[in-house]
Amino acid sequence: MGGWVMAGMGLALAFASTTLAQSAAPTTFTSEQATRGRAVYEQRCVTCHGGRFEGGGEAAPLVGTPFMLKWGHRTAGEFVVVIGQTMPPAASEKLRAAEAEAVAAYILQVNGHAAGTRELHADSQQPVRLAQGAVPAVAPVLAAAGAPARNRDFDRPFGNLDLPYPQREVANFRPVTEAMLDDPPPGDWLSWRRTRDGQAFSPLQQINRKNVGRLRLAWSLGVSAMQQPTPLVHDGVMYFTAPNGIILALDAATGDLLWRYQYLDQKGETVPGKAPRNLAILGDKLFLEATDNAMVAVSARTGQQVWRTDKPFGNSSGPMIADSVLIAGTNVCQFYKEVACYVAGYEPETGRELWRTYTIAQPGDPNESTWGKLPPNRRAGGDTWIPGSYDPRLNTFYIGVAQAKPWVAVSRGLTPRDAALYTGSTLALEPRTGRIKWWFQHVPGESLDLDDAFERVLVDVDGRPLVLTAGKDGILWKLDRRTGAYVDLTETIHQDVFANVDRATGRLTYRADILEARIGQPLQQCPGLFGGHNWPASAYSPATGALFLPLMQICGTMTPDKVDDRIGGGGNGAVPDYRRYLREMPGTNGQAGRLDAYDVRTFKLRWSHTQRAPFTAAAVATAGGLVFAGDADRYFKAFDADTGKVLWQTRLSAAAHGFPVTYSAGGKQYVAVFASQLGPLIAPVAVLPDIYLPPGGNALYVFELP
Predict the structure, then answer these.
(1) Contact criterion met (CB below 8 Å) for 374 and 412
(2) 568 vs 580: CA distance, rounded Å
(3) How far apart are the C-alpha atoms of 245 and 272, rounded to whole Å?
(4) What pLDDT is recorded for position 154?
(5) Which candidate, 348, 188, 212, 333, places its Cα nearest to that of 280?
(6) Is the dihedral of CA 643, 649, 654, 657 positive or negative?
(7) Beta strands in 35-108 (DSSP E)
(8) How far is residue 616's CA from residue 655's CA, in Å, rounded to a whole number?
């Protein structure tokens, strides 16, 4: 709500019963109240919880079996109270009592309860459960009650009115080759971090230290809802994702629309939901992860769909290309299912699945014992929700795997001494087969939602190929990317979760109270569950040998909770009250945001820029001696790569978000950044009341020199 999550409510998977309407309990809300709730939900909740109520990441799903397992024994009045008390954490956007009641009514309606004649209020004793205590069957949800299959297109200002869009073919399109992905034309941005090594470095230097202060707005484009996309740019054409399965192709110099694609499901209906973080491009095709778990290929020339393939899991990020294979991870892995999460390879020409590598050790795997006595369908987590990196010389794909779920080991029936492989690891995969060449587990048995799933940056130091990555705990790692051997680490921020960090061996030891955690026992942690480092990715400059790392200095409290052991149960298994239990990090003087520059050879800190606002957009480095980054206080800034001095800044309409890029079109260099409402990162900003987060302002901004 307000781009936020219904935390601690145990709201669950996107499932519903085909007979819900027939089995619903008597109700105390009206259809008019549910309609008002739908309007509030679509304005303030859908960007995180999804148009199909599927949730994602910390945003919990709002329908189905686990929802009833958690809430079936409680009242609708309690449901209203929890929404009103916890949503959203930013006080400036808190729901009014009538809005909380209306949203609760809408969610009850979507879950199969029929409208009555009296409005729902916080004192309602109406049971949330279905009649006779029935539990909804697991089935795809697009409930007829108040949630039509074809939601409105949120990027259309006039609701369901169909407006014409230009559909112009991209002239003189050059197919993108593997060689171009390895070494893009200087003005192109062809992968998530420009090059497949994850460096986010541009050789462009028309904009540099001397003239960056003259940057001005070239053009902008309003976009719909919260999003974290990465524009791709090829030969002066920009492609990016928008919510509800939309891809836009624009003239990158002017912002003129060339074509617009919108994904439709097999019934020809719009699928509402968030935009993935990235597209992939190869040949003449763009590849998109749709919000209903499908993957589609779209012509980069015309915007016409070429193929689609369905998958059991979706992802909040898009695929990457490695050795002419589409490689995609999976997301929303926190619930107990019969199928574990995995990384998979797909054929770019057809979408056919080529291989599947599970991120949870399965029966027969030599590391299965790291899950104790848990059966396979009780092993959850292992999300791969951030794109990986690829080394064509070693023909190896590197990807980070998130922690086991539920978050705290005791909630999953284990202890932190149970490693729970291959969670919390870097995986090195053979692109054609998915074979695990090596793995390195950063934090065995991770227990505080401080996962290591983020960008893998590939660099060479003195001829040695390395992979760098930082997790939410703020530890920056250096591994040999040929073997996975540990090389070095450094602690970038204050942390108190590990009693011992052995830099010689890379071994980490939790505090005693974390090792012996009990259900209901609060665990203090620095950093909090939002990191440290999070998805706003780092950038590396081969010109200076420095890694530029966005960091956040916020602490928190984690309280392990008991979860339901049945299929569909599980979940995050913790009840963090973000407004009460997030706090400023000791010794920071209220400076929550940091951008650090590290020498990749020595891991010595070259410079550190601290500020009040957390960084909520990724870093980009250029040959012009610049680093670009953006924050929650709506600032987009250019830093001197050598000193960290701010050389230029501008204020956007909303928080800087997503993954900025720089490119050239018509011989001119541009810098592009999205402004957006924040998703889960709104929570740490809530402890900084002097930072205003507007309820709208989503837009793409592109800057140029005069």
Answers:
(1) yes
(2) 29
(3) 7
(4) 40
(5) 348
(6) negative
(7) none
(8) 7
